[in-house]
Amino acid sequence: MRLGSGALVLIDLDSDAGTPLHRRIYDDLRRQILDGRLTRGARLPSTRSLAVDLRVSRSTIVQAFEQLRAEGYIESIARGATRVSAHLPDGLVRADTPPRPARPIAAHAGPSTRGASIARAWPQFGVVAEQPPRPFRTSVPALDVFPIDLWGRLMARRWRRSPAAALAYGDTRGLAALRREITDYLTQARGVRCHPDQVIVTSGSQHALDLAARAVLEPGDAVWMEDPGYFGAGGAFVSAGARLVPVPVDCDGMDVGEGLRRHARAKLAFVTPARQLPLGVTMTLERRLALLGWAAQRRAWILEDDYDSEFRYSTRPLASLQGLDASNCVIFTGTFSKVMFPALRLGYLVVPESLVDAVTVVRRHTDFCAPYLSQAVMADFMQEGHFERHIRRMRSIYQARRELFVDLLRRECSGLLEVEAPDAGMNLIAWLPAGTSDRKISQALREEGLETLPLSSCVMTRRLRPGLLLGFSGIREPDLRDGVGRLARQLERLIGRRARR
């Protein structure tokens, strides 16, 4: 049917009933213009006549036309009439099937040189699955026993008591109450020397590493990197344009002397002194003092990652490297992801006073501030004593799971793996027979539903015996038993019985 004196317009008002009426009219007219059913220059019926024929209010038609006119699909002509725009680009109108290009269209430019280098750095570090932890995902807390009801009550109470002002942007450094609790905890439990103004709340430890790298590194600066070491830290430094200098780790921690031989003028050293990731060794006092001496002499920085020091089973947690620092050269970072739960997305940096302003501004430019409610509930959780009790409970649970895990591995994987019971942490190393490929074995195990991290994925240049990093803290006892049985069967298939002789 021709409506008024304009073009033939057929509009379906029955489709998508949940969409506002003016939007349905807009969508239908726009589609007809793009499909070529309403050609360039075609005159449209007046808003009044279209409203009468469609039995809708004129304001509904006017609203649809105004949106089309604002986007350039229609235009006004003499005496208030409206037509399809005569200037629509040819590529926009799809009246006919577009011809196949004679030559393939060149791909858009790829990533920058820095972006490509970041993607190449430890490319095997994949996306963490959103599903519950499978055996033997590393560094996952015991989510199955987290006091979620208590956390929910604290969250509801905090939300009820929060003023409207809490909905605004918060302090970039973090909620003052949480920074005070973090300061008290680190002072008592880790021997960190700081005050709340030095604490910057971050969105997890990876964010903390990225902030520290951005604040103290120039493009081209050299960074001592533990080898083997944490690939997430390496990615943060590469993102800042730094050059990684691999420094070997032995039973005493990072070999500072070798670092001096390889690049004495490095700008920063990254270390995990309490429990080296992935080897699990503790940096000796002699090495710690040597590292601090180098940093003081060279005016360099030390970035201390304290990722899971709460979980020691034979002794109390060790004092931090930062607590020995007399030159204000240590940047200390920690996370609540390992102690609480990863989805909380809260971590922290403790920085020397000379860096507070710079790190605060960098944080403002990257993420502005952490979510208010998460910070407030975490502060309540700590202030009311729940945090300390939670750590004690988790330490006991992890110790029991560790003992069960080690016993199962020794009994069922004898001759296939060599394991030692770690005295701390959430993971352990299982050494494979010489000559095997831990990457190939890890990939084969993943296809069978077993998550392991090959040690070679943490290595930069050092030759290391093949092995797998296995997590136990977040795996329930029945799943540990089942997982070890499956692991033994798969290793028997992959490695063969020769390893048992």
Structure summary:
The protein is α/β, with parallel strands linked by helices. 39% of the residues lie in helices and 12% in strands. The longest helix is centred in the C-terminal third of the chain and has 27 residues, at 386-412.
Write the topology of this structure:
Elements: H1 21-35, E1 43-44, H2 47-54, H3 58-70, E2 74-76, E3 82-84, H4 113-120, H5 148-161, H6 176-189, E4 199-202, H7 205-216, E5 222-227, H8 231-239, E6 243-250, E7 253-254, H9 256-263, E8 268-271, H10 285-298, E9 301-305, E10 330-335, E11 347-350, H11 356-366, H12 372-383, H13 386-412, E12 418-419, E13 427-431, H14 438-447, E14 453-454, E15 467-471, H15 477-495
Parallel strand pairs: 5-6, 5-8, 8-9, 9-10
Antiparallel strand pairs: 1-3, 2-3, 4-11, 6-7, 10-11, 12-13, 13-15, 14-15
